[in-house]
């Protein structure tokens, strides 16, 4: 079965990269928002993890607000993003332990690269993506 590439807007991708740069040496984190499977926006969130240089935890208030906005007709929460300030753009053992296996998309920034992953029932699966203007 061929999996179609995920569409992400250039603006959303730029936001993810900028958030990672601003948060360094800590991990950046946030939400990937969109419609019909296209990531249209990235919303940086506070990283409330006890060790933000090694892990991330999205502020629950931001997550709840995004889900409420989605229920009211706003953009859907398609996934999450975070950075690996001293690592590669691939899921770490910590990421695997934290994963919900809910099918959402994870964008990971590391070593000047952004990769996308599906948090599937059997673990992370790499995704290809295309960047759209906007």
Description:
This protein has helices at residues 10-23, 60-71, 93-98, and strands at residues 6-9, 29-35, 38-45, 76-83, 105-110, 113-120, 123-127, 129-132. The chain is α/β, with parallel strands linked by helices. The protein has a single domain (6-132), classed as Cytidine Deaminase, domain 2, CATH 3.40.140.10. An eight-stranded mixed β-sheet has the order 7-6-5-4-2-3-1-8. Strand 2 and strand 3 (38-45) form a beta hairpin. The chain is globular. The model has no long low-confidence stretch (mean pLDDT 95).
In terms of topology, how is this protein built?
Elements: E1 6-9, H1 10-23, E2 29-35, E3 38-45, H2 60-71, E4 76-83, H3 93-98, E5 105-110, E6 113-120, E7 123-127, E8 129-132
Parallel strand pairs: 1-3, 1-8, 4-5
Antiparallel strand pairs: 2-3, 2-4, 5-6, 6-7
């Amino acid at each position: 079965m061929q999996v179609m590439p995920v569409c992400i807007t250039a603006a959303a991708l730029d936001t993810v990269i900028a958030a990672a740069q601003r948060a360094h040496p800590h991990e950046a984190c946030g939400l990937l928002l969109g419609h019909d499977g296209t990531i249209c926006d990235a919303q940086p969130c506070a990283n409330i993890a006890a060790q933000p240089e090694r892990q991330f935890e999205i502020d629950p208030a931001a997550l709840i607000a995004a889900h409420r906005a989605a229920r009211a007709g706003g953009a859907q929460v398609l996934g999450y993003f975070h950075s690996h300030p001293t690592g590669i753009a691939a899921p770490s053992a910590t990421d695997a332990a934290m994963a919900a296996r809910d099918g959402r998309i994870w964008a990971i920034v590391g070593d000047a690269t952004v990769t996308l992953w599906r948090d599937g029932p059997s673990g992370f699966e790499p995704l290809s993506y295309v960047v759209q203007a906007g």
